[in-house]
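Reopening this one. Same input as before:
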Amino acid sequence: MKKYKIAVIVGSLRKESFNLKTAKALMAIAPESLSLELLDIADLPMFNEDLEATPPKEWVAFRKQIIAADGLLFLTPEYNRSVPGVLKNAIDVGSRPYGQNSWDGKPAAIVSVSIGNISGFGANHHLRQSLVFVNVNTMAQPEAYIGGAAALFDDNGKLTDDSTKDFLKNFMGAFEKWVDTHAKQ
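Same output, byte for byte:
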């Protein structure tokens, strides 16, 4: 199987983010055919169409990273039943300028992580809506909603819950097949 470059985009900027911890756990258990790289969206200037003629260097670099990726893995917390503004901004930045959508046709998967029982369900589905519009092929099954995240990690940020590890390993196996299927089309 070919080696695929996967851009990992975490929608939480918090240093002790459970989404970031989950991203790192996914990177550790990913199949060998997937090479996962965290993309930093913290310093992306807010999208402003007035800047498109001379885009900020952060926009240009981010768009190149997306274009170079064979697939996308999104991790999102839920803020007010939606995605964090920083994640929505990254989607907007990557989709512009008009006619040059960096996201176009990429296979992707979404994991929502929350300390609550609803597990970021609203954010997961709002993100899916935005990704449909920018023509990202988001994996439908298995869905990944990780709840009760505060109890899943040790003090060093390592995932300690075996059932969650097993679920995420199966999720990444399905994602590997999803990316491979889209690469062959």
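So the earlier flakiness isn't reproducible anymore. For the record, The beta strands are 4-10, 34-39, 71-76, 107-113, 137-138, 144-146.
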